[in-house]
Amino acid sequence: MEVKASNKPKKTIAQLRKSVERRRIGIQAAFSILTNSYIVGFLKGTIYQGKLKQVCVPGMNCYSCPGALGSCPIGALQAVFNQGEYSKFWFDAKTGTAVAPPMYYFAFYVVGFLMMFGALCGRLVCGFLCPFGLIQDLIYKIPVPKKMKIRTFPGDKPLRYLKYFFLVVFVIILPLLYEPNPFFCKYICPSGMLIGGIPLMTYGSIFGNLGQGTGTGITSWAEAGGLTILKLSIMTALLVGSIFIYRPFCKYICPLGAIYSFFNRISLYRYSVDESKCTNCGACRHACRMGVDIVKTPNSLECIRCGDCKAACPHHAICAGFGKKKAAAPEQENTGSKVA
Amino acid sequence: MANTSKPIVKKSCPLDRGALRYIVPAAVFALGVLFLIIGIKDGEINAVLSKAVALCRECVGIG
Questions:
Q1: Which of A214, A242, A262 is the last residue of a domain?
Q2: Torsional sign, CA B58, A259, A27, A34
Q3: Do A218 and B61 contact (CB within 8 A), yes or no?
Q4: Which of these, A235, A55, A196, A6, lies nearest to B58 by C-alpha position?
Q5: Least CB–CB distance from A279: residue in B3, B25, B47
Q6: Residues A48 and A182 in one domain
Q7: End-to-end CA distance of chain A
Q8: First CA to last CA across chain B, in angstroms?
Q9: Cβ contacts of B28 on chain A, cutoff 8 Å
Q10: Which residue in chain B is spatially nearest to A313 when comparing CA positions?
C-alpha cells in the first residue's frame, strides 16, 4: 500500500497501543474521580446523602464509598427487587396477578437505566467507565516476569459463565426469595470492601467514631467479623490475581459486566472487521487480554471495548464506533513494527 | 507476525447489516427510557435513594 510521506513522527504499533491505553485509563480515572468526588466523606468518615444518589452510575461503584455521589446499579437492583411498599406494580410471583404479599417488584428504573447504557455502549462501560476495572487495570501493570502473566488456563472459558450465575442467583433470585438482602454486595462484592469498608473502618480506627451522627457509625476495625474476613479474602484474592490475570473480576464474577455483555451484539457502539484488509495475522487475537478473537466475533460478550486490538492491527482492518465507519486509512507505516 | 494459512472464519451477525444496525439499539434505548419513566413515576427512585444514603454495613463487610 502506498503511504504518503508525512512530517508527523511515525508511531510504531507498540507506541500506538500505549497511547490508546493511556487515554483509556485517563478517561477511567477522570470518571472515577468525578463520581467519587464527595471529599467531605473522606474527611469526616461518612457518606454522601444528597439527592444525586437517586441516579445510578454506569460502573461498579459501591454507594457506601465515602466519596460516592451516585448509586451502584447492582446494589440498587437488589435493593429494589424486593421493595414494594411504595409500588403499585406489584405482582404475585406464582400467579402473576396483582394481589397480596409475597409480591415482587420489577425494578423498572434500574433496568431502564442499564438498558439505555447497554443499548448505547454495551461493555464500553467496563473498559472506560468502571472504577473497579480501573483498579484491576492498574494492578495488572505491576511488573512480574512475562511468563507469570496468565493469558488463559484450563477452565478459563467455562469460568467465564460464572458471572451469569452470580447475576441470576445472587442479584436476582436470592434477593427476590428472601427479605431485602443484597446478597451479592453482602457476600461477594470486593468493591464495597475496598472503597467502602476499608476507608470507613480505618477512619474510625484513627479518628474515632466521628461519623456516627452522619450515618455510618463505624467505630473501628474492631467491628470486623466473619463477614469482613470473607469479603477481605475475596477482595485480596481478586486483587492479587489481577497482577497475573487481566481483570479476573470482570471475566469471572461481575454481574454488571454480565448484564452489559448481552448488549454487546446490539449496542450502537460496535466493532467490525474489514475483511478486505484483514490478513488473519493474529495480531489482534494476540493483543486482546480478555481472550477475544475479534476477527471471529467482533462483538463478543467478553469484549470490553478497550481498543487494544484496533491499535494492534497492522492493517487497520478493525473499526469501532457508533456509526457505520470505515477503518481509518493508515497515517503511518506500521508494518515491520513489533506487534506484542 | 507471519500470516497464517487458516481462512478467516467470521460469524456474520444479521444485526450488523442495514437498518437493523440502528433500529435495534434505538428500540432498546427507547424501551429503557420508558422503563426509566415508569420507575420514576412509581417512586422507585426514592427506594434507590433511601438505600443509597444509608450506609449498607453488610456491603462494606460489617454484619
A1: A262
A2: negative
A3: no
A4: A196
A5: B3
A6: yes
A7: 23
A8: 54
A9: 115, 118-119, 263, 266
A10: B1
If asked whether residues A327 and A249 sit together in one domain, one would say no
Taking contacts as CB-CB distances below 8 angstroms, the residues of chain B near A314 are 1
Shortest CB distance from B55 goes to which of A47, A119, A231? A47
Q: Which three cell numbers stand for residue A171?
A: 442479584
Q: What is the pLDDT along chain A (340 residues), one digit of tens a residue?
A: 444 555 666 678 888 899 999 999 999 999 999 999 999 888 888 889 899 999 999 999 998 889 999 999 999 988 887 665 434 444 555 566 554 444 557 889 999 999 999 999 999 999 999 999 999 999 999 999 988 999 999 999 999 999 999 999 999 888 877 766 789 998 999 998 898 888 888 887 777 755 554 455 565 677 677 888 899 999 999 999 999 999 999 999 999 999 999 999 999 999 989 888 999 999 999 999 999 999 999 999 999 999 999 999 999 999 998 876 554 444 444 444 444 3
- pTM (2 decimals)? 0.84
> Residue A53 sits in which domain range?
38-262
Query: Considering only CA atoms, which of A119, A302, A295, A296 is closest in space to residue B22?
Result: A119
Note whether A189 contacts B: Cβ–Cβ < 8 A. Answer: yes
Residue A122 shares a structural domain with residue A200: yes
